[in-house]
Amino acid sequence: MLSQVYSLLKSQGIIPNAVQEQMLTSHVRAMAHRSITGEPLPEVEASLFEEISPDSMSLAREVVAQFGNLPDEEAWLLSVHFEVAKENL
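Now predict its structure.
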């Protein structure tokens, strides 16, 4: 899954720096764990993510959909990683 995430980002010209890559990798691993165990996320407030670009949210939803069993809130959180990494350009 990690290689797919980084390929997807690269195809969009989004290159995380070393710290961002470490944080993103940790997050994707945690998502995989939640996908397997069914462990829920703590409650997340949708309004916190209103300033995330539609592009970052779309990419995040694409990744979350590949797991097949995670809630949309996972995409909200993942989209932050993508949005921050876009600023590297």
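The longest helix spans residues 18-37.
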